[in-house]
TrEMBL record:
Function, as annotated: SbcCD cleaves DNA hairpin structures. These structures can inhibit DNA replication and are intermediates in certain DNA recombination reactions. The complex acts as a 3'->5' double strand exonuclease that can open hairpins. It also has a 5' single-strand endonuclease activity.
NAD among keywords: no
Organism: Salmonella enterica I
Family of this protein: Belongs to the SbcD family.
Gene: sbcD_2
Protein name: Nuclease SbcCD subunit D
Top-level taxon of the source organism: Bacteria
Single Gene Ontology MF annotation: endonuclease activity
Domain Calcineurin-like phosphoesterase: 1-225
Alphabetical keyword list: DNA recombination, DNA replication, Endonuclease, Exonuclease, Hydrolase, Nuclease
Subunit field text: Heterodimer of SbcC and SbcD.
Gene Ontology annotations of biological process type: DNA recombination; DNA replication
Amino acid sequence: MRILHTSDWHLGQNFYSKSRAAEHQAFLDWLLETAQAHQVDAIIVAGDIFDTGSPPSYARELYNRFVVNLQQTGCHLVVLAGNHDSVATLNESRDILAFLNTTVIASAGYAPQLLHRRDGSPGAVLCPIPFLRPRDILTSQAGLSGSEKQQQLLHAIADYYQQQYREACQLRGERKLPVIATGHLTTVGASKSDAVRDIYIGTLDAFPAQHFPPADYIALGHIHRAQCVGGTEHIRYCGSPIALSFDECGKSKCVHLVTFEQGKWQSTESLAVP
């Protein structure tokens, strides 16, 4: 089983009034070629497909054209919402894109599902976790202090991940299938760039890696610099495919090619975006 892990496309971004359309088109063309060259079974986009909740028409066109072109290769596409994405915008085309071998996860509440290889056989179990909005996983309580709200949110996110993992293990059963989880959040110790905005303002600054479940691979988005989390090889940010702020200029950009064998993570190769 092979997947490509990418995130933070930010389609539709204007950088100081300069459109990034040509750069994004070049990246998507390269990603399509890369998926074909490596015979990838699935591409996971871990959030922030668009730069705003109401992306311009050309950004939607880039997205839709990529889905159509990828579908012809037999590679499955999984799109997860980030904090920049609008739930309504992603959901408006979800049912149509499902016919084009594309799964769109715009909000919390989706059960783990099987990812299939190109030949149709089960290849992995996916915990499809997008950006978790507090209103989706928390019940509001009056009278809590700032630190209490922070702990409440941390526990709610941790509980959501653990529940997803338990359900994934049940779905896997006795089959030798890896469990892949996703996420769109800041983890403790992650190196951020200027373009990354805080997503849990005034409550949770960063999520401790030890609260993640023991999935075989955790594909993260939100941080624009590719990096491992907590000294592990299997919990990773892939970073954005193009520079989105001045302090990202000159930095290499990549996607991760992740290989699984016999139901376990085998390797992660960073493929440089030209």
